[in-house]
Amino acid sequence: MSDEVKVPINPSIPSGEQTVWADVSHLLQAACEDLQDGELIHGENFNLFAAMSALEIMDPKMDSGIVSRYNSVDEAIENGAAPVPLSLDRTVDIQCTIDIMDHLLACEATWHKGHSLAQTVFSCIYLLRPDRTTSHVLLHSYCRVIRATCNAVVSVVSAARTNEEEDLFIMTYGLPLKGDGDEKCLSMLHAVEETISRQLRACKASLSKKRVVEDIEPLQMNPDLEEGYCKALLCRIRFRKHFYHALLSMRRPQGRGLELARKHISSCLTELDSILTSAEFLKCNACGTCKDVLEDRTTASGCQPIGFDASLNCRLFAPTPPRAIKILSWIKAVEYFQKLLHDLDIICSYSLYPLLESVLRFVVEFQKFQPDLVARAYLQMGNSMGEILS
Questions:
Q1: Secondary structure of residue 124 in the 3-state scheme
Q2: CA distance 270 to 45
C-alpha cells in the first residue's frame, strides 16, 4: 500500500516537521466500491447519535456564523456602516443620534426579554468600537453609560442566579462590556447634559437676553427646531443618568441606597413621559428612511437608525442554526421600562429587616405582577431581604 501512496506536488496545506500530506482519494474510492448497502466505515470513537445531531458548518441555514453581511467590524466601518460624525449637516446629525438612542432602548428591552446581548444592544457598531466616537461627545458619553448599565445588569443577574440555565441573557461572548474610563460615564453624561441645558436656555431667552448668551454655540443650525431637539435629547440623557444611578443605589449594602433609588426611579418615569411626548416632534421633522408600519418602528421618528448590524457578531456564537430576533418596537420598549421601574420601586419600598413570614407573603404578592428577569434578580439581591432569602 505504501508504494501506491502519492504525495501531491502542491498540497493546499503545507507539510510540517512531523506531518506529511498524502493523496488517499484512490483508496477511498476503492473502499466505496467494496461497501455493501447499510455498511459504514468509522473509527473507534464514532457515535451515530452525535453524527446525526451534528450541524453542517458553512451552511447558511444551519450555521449562524455564515450569515453575517460583513466579515468583521472593521470591514463594516470601512463600508460606511457607522460614520463619525453621523452627518455633516448638524441637524441631521442630531436626528440620527436620537434615532440611535431610541433603537438602543428597544435593543436593551429586547435583551432583557431573554435574547442575546450580542444580537441586541451590541449590534450597535459604535459600542463595539467606542474609541471612534471620542470626537462625538454626545454619542460617546451615551454609549459609555449604556455599556456600564449592561455590565451592572449582567452582574446582578449572574449573582442572583434568577435566569434559567439555557438563557442567553448573561452570556457576553467576549464583547467589550467594560472599558477604560467607564467609571466616569456619569460625569461625562452630566457635562453633556449641562451643555444642552445651556443651549436650551439660550434658545428660550428673550431678545434682550440673547446678547448675553449669543456666544453659546447652538445644538444645530435650525433655530426653529433648536428647542425641540434640546428637549428630546435632555429627557433621553436624564433617563439614562437616573436609571444607572437607581441600579447602583439598589446594590448599596444594608439597604442604604433604597430611598435614593426610589427618587431616581421616580425621575426615570418622569423622563420616560417626556420621551413619549417628544415623539410627535421627532416624527414631524424626521428625515431618512421611515418604516411604513409605525407599530413596528424602533425609533420615535420612525426612521431606520444607522450604525447597527444584528448579524455582525454571529461569528462569536457556537455553530448553531441562526436564531431570528425581532427587536421590540420603540413603544413596547418604553412600556417595558415603565413596568420594570414600577417593579423596582415596589422592591425598594419594602421595609428593612422583615420577618420571614412577611417576606414570603411579599414575594407571593410581588409575583402576581409577573416581574421580568431583571426585577426578579434585584428582588433576590435586594438588601432589604437578602440575608433572609439567602
A1: strand
A2: 63
